[in-house]
Amino acid sequence: MEFSKKVVWITGASSGIGKALALAFAKKGAITVLSSRNRQQLEMVQDECKKLGAQCLVLPLDLADSSDFPARAKEVIQKFHKIDILINNGGMSQRSLIKETPLELDRKLMEINYFGNIALTKAVLPYMLAQKSGHIVTVTSIVGKFGFPLRSAYSASKHALHGFYETMRSELKSDNIRVTIAIPGRVKTQISVHALLKDGTSNNKMDEGQATGISAKKCATDIIKAIKKNKKEVLIGGKELLLAHIHRFVPSLYYRIVDKIKPT
């Protein structure tokens, strides 16, 4: 699959994995649509993409409010006449114990990570069906494969995405709509810094494990490889991915490992 002149819409494109994806696609000659809440940062990414010779549209949106997503999708179609690839990368994490987490925070994480994600997919899907082609990518997390301390709402929202997109892949196979679930482990981004605490404020520090994770550029490269190969699912990261395999094949060992983790 060649990406030149393909229209690629990326959420969470103002930083981290999303920004790395935007720059990587720009280098490949793709037309990128950049979305997140932060217009200023998006415009900075846009400038970098333009320096690479790529056409780029800044389209701010808030995953917590999906009411205008159909209008935003129509805007992309009116400008570029198609949407070839949608990458649902935007989201928010959490660092709080279940017993201390108010239900409002659970709802907020689910609204952003799950409902905001699938709402954009549903806004784009009619156009992909009409053009009889399209590739939808959702970036979940290794904790979408298993539970992990301090991440109950985040993990639950990522689990939900797996159920939705695995079903979508099956239902739309005959419509030439491809679906890839990208599952990063530890990637050195700001997601743990912006993660929500029990009171709704930001964590304001990077997890030790994440600080030693793979780069966002490496993660983006692996996601693009998975898209090219039309992979149904791809695990991306380092040695932490072993826990996903242990959970699948030796669950008793997984439970012993996780039970030894002390939430801090």
Description:
The protein is of the alpha/beta class and 264 residues long. The protein has helices at 16-27, 39-51, 69-80, 103-131, 152-172, 208-211, 216-228, 242-249, 251-259, and strands at 7-11, 31-35, 56-58, 85-88, 134-139, 177-184, 233-236. Helix 1 packs across helix 7. The longest helix has 29 residues, at 103-131. The radius of gyration is 18 Å and the shape is globular. The N and C termini lie far apart (45 Å). The model has no long low-confidence stretch (mean pLDDT 96).
Count of folded domains: 1
Output the helix-strand order.
EHEHEHEHEHEHHEHH
Reading off the top of the CATH hierarchy, the class is best stated as Alpha Beta
Number of strands: 7
The major beta sheet can be summarized as:
7 strands, parallel
Structural class by sheet pairing and helices: alpha/beta
Put simply, the count of helices is 9
Show the helix and strand layout.
Layout: E1 7-11, H1 16-27, E2 31-35, H2 39-51, E3 56-58, H3 69-80, E4 85-88, H4 103-131, E5 134-139, H5 152-172, E6 177-184, H6 208-211, H7 216-228, E7 233-236, H8 242-249, H9 251-259
Parallel strand pairs: 1-2, 1-4, 2-3, 4-5, 5-6, 6-7
Helix pairs in contact: 1-2, 1-7, 3-4, 4-5, 8-9
Key attributes of the depicted protein:
264 residues; alpha/beta; Rossmann fold; 7-stranded parallel sheet; 9 helices; 46% helix; globular
